[in-house]
Amino acid sequence: MKIYNHLYQIVITSVNLPTTAWLQILRRNYVILTLLLGLNFILATPAIAANLSGDLLKQPATEITVSLGNEANELKFEPNHLELFAGKRYQLQLTNPSQLKHYFTAKDFADGIWTQKVEAGKVEIKGAIHELELKPGAEAEWVFVPLKSGTYGLRCSIPGHTEAGMTGGIAIKN
C-alpha cells in the first residue's frame, strides 16, 4: 500500500494540479469505470445464455403440458405448480380446452429464463415473452432454459380469473 501512496504522490506533484482537481478526475473515472463494468455485465448475460444454448439445443427438451382451464370451463391451471431446474431445456405445451380465452402470465418467471422460441400455429416467436394469450381450443409451445432460481407466481390476468383461483406457481431450483 505504501508503494501505491508513494506513486500517487509522485504523479500528483509532477503534474502540478491542485488536490481538488485530482479528486474530481478520480471520481469521474470511478463513475465511468463503474458504468462500464455494469454495462459489461448487462451485455454479457445474453451472451452467456447464447453460449449455454449451443450445447442445450443438442439436448432433448423435457416436455411439460399445462392446460389453461378445462372442458368444464373451470378457472384453473392443470397442473398449477411447476418445478423446473436452472440450466435445463424445457418444452412447455400450453393448451386451452375451455370455451373461454385465458392468459399464461408469469412476468418474473419470464425475466429469469432464456426463451428459445414460442410457437403457435404457423408462427414462431423469439425473444422476451411475458404473457401468452390462448383463445378457446388454442395450443402453444414455449421452449426455454431457466437461468435464475426462485419461486414465481403464475396467473390468468383476465379480470375475475385470478380472483376465481386461476393461479399457480413456478419453482426454479439449481
What does this structure look like?
This protein has 174 residues and is of the alpha+beta class. Helices cover 33% and strands 34% of the residues. A 6-stranded mixed beta sheet has the order 2-1-4-9-6-7. It has a 3-stranded mixed beta sheet with strand order 3-11-10. A two-stranded antiparallel ribbon has the order 5-8. The model has no long low-confidence stretch (mean pLDDT 84).
Provide a short characterization of the protein structure.
By secondary structure, the protein is of the alpha+beta class. The protein is 33% helix and 34% strand.
Rg, Å, rounded: 25 Å
Q: Strand order within the widest sheet? A: 2-1-4-9-6-7
User: What coarse outline follows from CA principal-axis ratios?
Assistant: elongated
Mean pLDDT: 84
- Run of helices and strands: HHEEEEEHEEEEEE
Summed up, the helix count is 3
Helix proportion: 25-40%
Instruction: Supply the helix-strand structural class.
Output: alpha+beta
Unreliable stretches (pLDDT < 50, length at least 5) are: none
Task: Tally the beta strands.
Answer: 11
Range of strand content? 25-35%
| Major sheet attributes | 6 strands, mixed
Say what oligomer this is. Answer: single chain
Distance between the termini: 40 Å
